[in-house]
Amino acid sequence: MPQCQRCQNTWTWKETIKKSFVFKYYVICPYCKEKQVRTNSSKQNMSMAVVSPSWLLPLFILFDLPLPLLLLSYFAAFALSPFLMKLSNEDAPLW
Ligand SMILES: [Zn+2]
C-alpha cells in the first residue's frame, strides 16, 4: 500500500482505491491533506496490472471459458492494483 512521503502514514486499500479514480496529476493524502504524486513507475505498473487480464483473452476464446471468469480476473487485477501505488512529494517528468 502507498505510504505518504510527508506524514509517513500508510494508506488503506479503500483509500487507495478511491484515489485511483482521481484523474488529476496529484492526489491529496487523507491524513495530512498534502499533495502527493504517484510515481511514474507506479502509474505504469498499475496500468499494466489493470490491463493484464487482456493477455488471457486468447485462452478464453481458445478454451471457450465463461465470460464472467474474464470479468472476475479484471476485477481481481483492479483490486490488487493499489498494492502497486507508490507516492512521491515531487512530480517527476514523464521522460
Ligand atoms: Zn500524508
Pick out its properties.
transmembrane, single chain, membrane, 4 helices, transmembrane helix, 42% helix, 95 residues, three-stranded antiparallel sheet, elongated, mainly alpha, binds zinc ion
Would you mind describing this structure in some detail?
There is one protein chain. The chain is mainly α. It has one domain. The chain is 42% helix and 9% strand. It has 4 helices and 3 strands; from the N terminus they run αββαααβ. It has a 3-stranded antiparallel sheet with strand order 1-2-3. α2 runs antiparallel to α4. The structure holds zinc ion. The site of zinc ion (ZN) has 8 residues, from loops. The site of zinc ion has 8 residues, from loops. This is Cxxc_20_cxxc protein. InterPro entries: CxxC_20_CxxC (IPR026369). Keywords: Membrane, Transmembrane, Transmembrane helix.
